[in-house]
Amino acid sequence: MAITSFVSFLLSLLLILVQAKGNNDSTCPKSFACGNLTDLSFPFSPSTQPDCGIISMSSCDAKPFPKIRLLPEGDWYYALLKRVSSIWLGDPKLETTLRQHKCQAFNKNFSLPNSPSISFHMLNLYNFFKCNTTSNNPLNVTQKKNDRFAGYNMYNGCEGFSIYYKLSQDGHEDIGADNLPTNCTLIRLPIQSIHGDLFNWLGPKILIEWKLSDDCYQCHNEGGQCHTHKINKFYCQKETTGSNMVEWILGTGAVLFTVGLLVLLFYFREKILCYKYLRFWESNAEDHKKVEAFLENYGSYAPKRYNYTDIKRITGHFRSKLGQGGFGNVYRGNLRNGSHVAVKVLNELKGTGEDFINEVASISRTSHVNVVSLVGFCFEGRKRALVYEFMPNGSLEKFIYEERSDKFRQLGWPILYKIALGIARGLEYLHRGCTTRILHFDIKPHNILLDEDFCPKISDFGLAKMCMKKESIVSMLGPRGTIGYIAPEIVCRNLGGVSHKSDVYSYGMMVLEMVGGRKNVDVGVDRTSEIYFPHWLYQRIELDEELQLIGIMNEEEKEWARKMVMVSLWCIQTDPSNRPSMSKVVEMLEGNLVSLPIPPKPYLYSPSRTEGDSSAVELTGSLFVDM
Q: Are 517 and 550 found together in one domain?
């Protein structure tokens, strides 16, 4: 009875303290909306309360997009699309000059001022070199320019200067001003493509990533507002009215609560210690054996093992969250050598460690430009974490699903094609390039990460299965994968054995979503015939009609789009033997569209409400022999 009364007293005191703190909360909104952007919060601020943040929003009712200013007294941009810690901006002035092919576009050198509170990084900028072409240039300057830009492409359609740039981003490097001829300067402009002439390269959309300073982050968490002195030094402004009283109440409450918690723990110490001891050893003993066996097997080739204290230091005590899922959360981190990493911290209550060991073991066997690299891992009691190389552009998922009202794509067709080809090469490597064949079993946009150049990398090997190369069929105890991407034979075994062709099916479904900018099954479309996107696309291919896809600018992009559709329809054949291997997929994507045959219609598709029974569609013989 005494314990019950004491607990009731502590709960009542805690409620009073929470209410007292709530009454002192800032009048700044926790979140707000502005135009097409929803759930905005610090560091963003509404125009009516500019002191509530650093990045100012304005003209929220303006069409087509609201306006945004990254720092006070800075330029205004269009706010196109917000992500976790990045945002797409549109530059209206640059858009006008590019549309009219005006050389004034090369007068602007994009850079953003940073403040003591926040720093910005432009992710899709590209280096261009602007050189004056006056007739009185000394011969030594002209010779130095020719030597310095050997292998570069030149645009000389502007009066008074020429622009030098590389046709490919491969091997792209920053060149210091001291390495340039005296009449040349380095300018940085956003790109949207790497094909066509120079004006087709450039685009008005800029991807901005921001990062709060440690001082500003701490200030905001303590209820203050980040400001900058006129001498460009940081200071934190806090509400002073009643703050000392609230801090005293909170401090006293914390002490009382801690004393009460210790009393309860002491009272139940025998039961708690016994329960934790049994639970820990039952659930972790076998997992630790697997970890130690793995490390012993790999020897010096095993990834680095961190303790949990290292993980907290690397992530800055889990300060910057990049994303979350059923497995746990992903945080941004920094190693001692300055390298950026992504740390996936698994939920402590997540079953056994089988998926964790599976992922560490499988990805440690890989080394490929299109497979994410594992830097290290942590396995300490119930604490489990994976440390990966950092991918600045996050997952493919956030780039491919378009709003139906939008007339532009976040990623142009050249980049979409490059991503589809890169993923295919990564899967080909997993299926054929490793000593042991690795079947991923969870290929989907969420598990494809993009680096700063939008090079795709396959990640998340928690469901992967390893087998010998000669094994074409693998055994599985139950279905694995994500609804919408699971191959039919995984669920219905009488359709064929489970093999690397199951990854081919998932790849095909994913590329179709990249092509359409939508989920493959969408009940929100206007016409019932478009609910199942692969079936709608197949009808248009069969009738040799236009695909009517968003953002196609020329014949080359039209061919890329049609090739991606044709290859995907081959990949999602219901009979696994009718699907190509990933080697064949790469060959088809790189080959000629004319030589690509029209695939048969998969008979397990979602029919529209206006069509008859589809079960009578007959499969043709296999065109692709298992490799």
A: yes
The answer to whether 235 touches 229, Cβ cutoff 8 Å, is yes
DSSP 532: B
| Residue 429 and residue 351 share a domain | no
The CATH number covering residue 297 comes to 3.30.200.20
Would the pLDDT of 609 be above 50? no
Boundaries of domain holding 547: 397-595
> For the whole prediction, is pTM greater than 0.85?
no
Q: Using CA atoms, how far apart are residues 314 and 354, in angstroms rounded to an integer?
A: 25
Same domain, 579 and 448: yes
Question: Could you say which of 310, 355, 442, 460 is catalytic?
Answer: 442
Tell me the pairing of strands 153-155 and 328-334.
Answer: unpaired
Domain boundary at 365, 389, 413, which?
389
> What is the Cβ-side half-sphere exposure of residue 223, based on CA atoms within 13 angstroms?
14
Cα angle 65, 67, 70 (rounded to 5 degrees) comes to: 135
Give yes or no: 287 in active site: no
CA–CA separation, 402 and 419 (whole Å)? 17
| 545-577: pLDDT as tens digits | 777 788 888 889 999 999 999 999 999 998 899
Dihedral sign of CA atoms 601, 604, 610, 612 in order = positive
Looking at the 3D structure of the chain, how many domains does it have?
A: 3
Which of 144, 192, 197, 152 lies closest to 171 in space, CA to CA? 152
Among 586, 173, 193, smallest CA distance to 368 is for 586
Give me the count of residues in the chain.
627
